[in-house]
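Journal club side-thread
Mid-discussion, someone asked how the predicted structure for our own chain would compare to the paper's figures. Pasting it here so we can look after the session.
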Amino acid sequence: MKKIFLFAIIVCLASIASAQVELPRPSPRASVMQRIGVTVVTITYSRPGVKNRVIWGELVPYDKVWRTGANEATTISFSNDVKIEGENLPAGTYALFTIPGKTEWTIIFNKAADQWGSNDYKQEQDALRVKVKPAEGPDEEWMNFVFRNLSLNSADVVFRWANLEVQFGIQTDTLRKVMADCRAAMKDLKADDDRTPRSCAQFAAENNGDPAEALQWVGKSISMKEGFANLATQARLQAKIGKKSVAIQTAKKALTLAKDAPANDVENLKKEMQEWSGN
C-alpha cells in the first residue's frame, strides 16, 4: 500500500514539474472594440514594438502583403454589414492584411481569418481591397489601433506605429437596421410591452425615421400604458408631420403625467411647445 502511495506522489510531482510555464510574448496580444450605432467592430492583433529598428521599408517591406502586426494575422469583425471607404463588406470576421507603400497603402479584408502571419495569404480569398493615404503621426513605440470620429453611422479606424498612421472609414446604416428590427419586433410584441414600441418610435423621431410608422408604434405604447415619455414622443412626431396644434395638446397631456419624469426632459418639451406655437 505504501508503495502505491509513494508512486502516486511521484507521478503527481512529475506532472507538476512538467507543467508548461506561460511566458510573455515579445509582441503582446491586444483587442479593441467599438460599437457604431448597433454594429460591433472588434480588432484583435499583436503589438510589436519599434525597439530601435527602422520599421517602414526595412522591418516591414514596402509593396508586400503584411499581417498588420505580429504573430497571428490581425483580424477585424463586424456584427452587421458595413461599408469600408464607401465599398460594401458583409458582416463577418476577416484577416486584416495591408500592403504598405511610401505614398499609398492597400487595406485588405481577407475571408481566411484564422492565419499565422501572411505565409498562407491567397488573394482570391479577398473580400475587399481599398486604398488609403498614410500620414505622419506621433511616435508610437507599440503598434496600436484606435477609433476616431465616432457617430451614429460611422467611425474611422486608425492604425498607428512608429511615426506613421493609416486611417480608413467604416460606414453603417444604423437607421435602416434599427427600423427593420423594430418592424420585426412589432410582429411579436407582447401585450404588456409598452417599452419597445415607445423606444422604437423615439429613435425614429430623433433620427429621421418614417414619422407615420413611428406614430403607429407610439400609439401601441400609449394604448398599453399612457405616460409622459410616450405622449411626449407622440407630440414630437405630430409636430414633424405638420400637426403642431395637435402636438401642443398632446404635449400638455404629457406634462400632466410628468411627476416622475426627468426635469430636463420636461423643460425640453416645454421649449418645443413654444416653438410649435410660434412663440
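Post-session note: The chain has two domains: 24-171, 174-277.
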